Please model this.
Amino acid sequence: MFPGIDSGTFAGPPAATAVFTTVLTEGPVSRVALARRLGLSSAAVTKAARPLIDLGYLHELAATERSGPGAGRPASPLAVRAEREFFLGVKITADEVIGVVCDLRAQVHVSARRPLDAPDVEAVLTEVGRLVEDLFDAFPGDRSLVRRLGLALSGDIDRGIGLVRYSPFLHWRDVPLGRLASQRTGLAVTVENDVKALTAAEHWFGEGVGAESFALITVGTGIGCGLVVNGRLVSGSYGVAGEIGHLTVDAGGPDCHCGGRGCVEAIAGTDAIVTQARDHTGRPDLTIDEAVALARAGHEQVRAVFTRAGTAIGCAIAAVANLVGPTRIVVSGEGLAAYDLFDSHIRTSFERQAFGAAARCPVSIRPLPFEEWARGAAAVSIQSLVVP
Amino acid sequence: MFPGIDSGTFAGPPAATAVFTTVLTEGPVSRVALARRLGLSSAAVTKAARPLIDLGYLHELAATERSGPGAGRPASPLAVRAEREFFLGVKITADEVIGVVCDLRAQVHVSARRPLDAPDVEAVLTEVGRLVEDLFDAFPGDRSLVRRLGLALSGDIDRGIGLVRYSPFLHWRDVPLGRLASQRTGLAVTVENDVKALTAAEHWFGEGVGAESFALITVGTGIGCGLVVNGRLVSGSYGVAGEIGHLTVDAGGPDCHCGGRGCVEAIAGTDAIVTQARDHTGRPDLTIDEAVALARAGHEQVRAVFTRAGTAIGCAIAAVANLVGPTRIVVSGEGLAAYDLFDSHIRTSFERQAFGAAARCPVSIRPLPFEEWARGAAAVSIQSLVVP
DNA sequence: ATCAATACTTGAAGAAGTTAAATATTCGCC
DNA sequence: GGCGAATATTTAACTTCTTCAAGTATTGAT
Model:
């Protein structure tokens, strides 16, 4: 029924899957609360939970809080035994691979990175293999508790079969990365688009928990978007989804390499910001960090570049909110290291452009440590354990 | 188990619902094909289908085509008995109510309309009541086969409880239209936003059949969008979804009443087209029909207005395609009566703006008879029978 | 006529969930 | 300290739905 450590996937009756997923994502919950939440009888929850407890995936917490006004038996909340199993997550970029080891609750225990010099399949597999070894070496726990590896990279990915359909930055087409990495490492491998992986992580373990629908906007060199609608990740039929980088947001904006004009990416992408800051300072070698420093120091024109970028991002978010109406929105990415320069402008612009009540949608804005991408990959791997 | 004509909702075991929905939407299918399609055993399909046949909702068709290479018992495809039950659908606009009677397959049998002079709740209920009477009078079949009424109107609607949260054009807030109309007519009433209703109709009975995800763009006075993602209609958390009218699509476009500039609606909305045509002809009383006639007759500048509108619509579609990646797209609405003036420009612009393979997404463009809106309402009513 | 192929049906067996009753644990109150 | 009300969990009998395996039905090809 439920798998021992050796069996491949984790398939059980629907109720068991629902119970496990809910406990995993929504923290310790009593059986009665689970029953209410999932529309099951409490008897069904008891039965579904037992094998999960026997296998060590769940355990009972000591009763803590008193519930009602007066009396009653205290609940014994079910919680995930986070250290029952560990998961590897690796993000592949053009010039390095970044990896983490996470527990069942997607907490990072170990991380590592390796440079990547050639983008060919063999080189990537080799470096991923070495990175996995590094992670295993650094991992203090029992190796046999690690059976799964998630890979995340930018591009058109078929998660179901672990196929990289097309990766522009690696120049790959139709590479069966899942199968290859599995042969190389001996682990069960999942492959997912990086933005979608991050969205999945946020959906199960971050701010998206409990939201019927939400949107994750990533700001960096490019501007991306991951969507969850009706509780499910949006995949897109033709390998395309969440492409918001080339939405027009500023009628009088700069030309974009896509051929359009005033695209978000041409205003708020990291490269665009650097280019604009260089123009305004006359320093052709200005870096993004220097631009941030200048803006913080009060350089009017450079500051205006960030203001404009924040406004552009706000417009893009509003477009997403108007179209799909998410319950909440998270804005994240390396590009938000200069968070303080963006925050208020993103919000103001969003609220002005959002339609009616959509403006009330909570928006979280926060920078994203680079390891988060790898954690996203691990999160997908965790999902693949629960919902194969 | 399954309802006789008197019982309220149509709730059965999951397999029965799945079988009925599939036969309803995907035409005659054999039991074996259903089993494969739904991941059930053929025994389960047989058992699920029996009560549906007994109740007259399904029937067996004569075997028609030979299947495989040589031999085998021919299939007896299951089909919906379309005239087993009929459904009323009514679209409410600012100045009239339009109604239809549809069969189970959403084929229109009767239609009617009545003017509406006051937009207050009482007046609308009265006219809807009269329209229902008109439809009943004109309906040639047995009245007892009609038990359900769908209402569709623009605005923020809670379909679940039949509540009109906010309707700008009627100036309504929190009107429990479902309950009121049910009391008035004695029918089971569903209420849905008009664009979503049309999307639902297209999803079950139109070009959206079988598509995991698709988008319906309506072009008229406003520009709207209905979405189906992962097989489910997108509702939006704050009463907002599918608002694409104010996407910026033309950097140098005209000002829009929303405060922005170059919005789709300010370029391709019916009012915007008329305004532009008036400017170009110097005739302040020009109607939309006259503008269409002029364009068809070759009036350069007026023609250019339509070209520009088509281009703007194409941009908007591309934005939707890039964000959610639908399997297919339908562009429709009264505004496309001048279909021939738009078609190629919409396509060209869409293909230019769509990202990568998304440009391959099939786009259907066609005008929409006004009764289709009422049919959409009826379709929601049909859905409410099957999936309460 | 017989065989192979395919479609459908049947009845026994099994899985998953429900209801109702029993058990467990607490609080407030005497 | 004991008792009753309140809440949580478990147990056991039962219901429902589904599959499995074996049979029946119907056809084309030989």
Q: What stands out?
A: The longest strand of chain B covers residues 96-103.
